[in-house]
Amino acid sequence: MSPARPIEIPADLARPLVAIGWLVGTWQGAGEVTYPSMDEAVPFGQELVVSHDGRPFLRWDSRTWRLDDEGRLGAPLATETGFWRVPGGEAGLEGTEVELLLAHPMGYVEQYLGRAHAGKIELTTELVARSADAKEYSAAQRLYGFVQGDLLWAMDMAAVGHAMTSHASARLKKVA
């Protein structure tokens, strides 16, 4: 087993983003999506690119694809694009307040609020807005963690008549 990758924070990162700076980079891996309205869990591959340009936000671009039985990428599943921000720009005793703004091509946008603590980020939707033809979706929670050098994440969701329940999770490795 290779040693875990240490947390890396880009030297030119805007100061307010230090608590979430470990997200910066390209991450790839696999996970599983499931929900009570689905017949079975679906394995997926994911590529996540988190970048910055010196201003006080991170850019977030995530794409997922269905995986076949041999683990090869198949049909596209989900795409989300957005930005991480640190409202107020300062860390507090309870961690750093963070905001994640996401847009999805399936007709909805989300605003998450939460806290970052030493390699862990917990978020809850503050706002979900959807177009008239988008699937009913009312709330979500996300958890991101830097574990043994990898990015692990999990998402719970309340949608299509179901209360908040597990929806998706993945383990991603940082790539050069």
Note down, in words, how this protein is organized.
With 176 residues, the chain is an all-beta fold. 24% of the residues are buried. The chain contains no helices and 11 strands. The mean pLDDT is 92. Keywords: Heme, Iron, Isomerase, Metal-binding. Its EC number is 5.99.-.-. It catalyses: peroxynitrite = nitrate. Residues 17-174 form the THAP4-like heme-binding domain.
Question: What descriptors fit this protein?
Answer:
10-stranded antiparallel β-barrel, mainly beta, Nb(III)_bact/plant, EC 5.99.-.-
Short description:
A motif (GXWXGXG) lies at residues 25-31. With 176 residues, the chain is mostly beta strands.
Strand order of the largest sheet: 1-2-3-4-6-7-8-9-10-11
Percent of residues in helices: under 10%
H/E element sequence? EEEEEEEEEEE
What fraction of the residues are assigned to beta strands by DSSP?
Answer: over 45%
Q: Supply Rg.
A: 16 Å
- Give the total of beta strands: 11
Low-pLDDT residue intervals, each spanning 5 or more residues: none
Compute the number of helices. Answer: 0
Sketch the major β-sheet: 10 strands, antiparallel, barrel
Q: Calculate the mean pLDDT score and round it.
A: 92
Secondary structural class: mainly beta
The shape, in one word, is globular
What is the terminal separation in angstroms? 19 Å
Organism: Aquipuribacter nitratireducens
Pfam families: THAP4_heme-bd (PF08768)
InterPro entries: Calycin, Nb(III)_bact/plant, Nitrobindin, THAP4-like_heme-bd
Protein name: Peroxynitrite isomerase
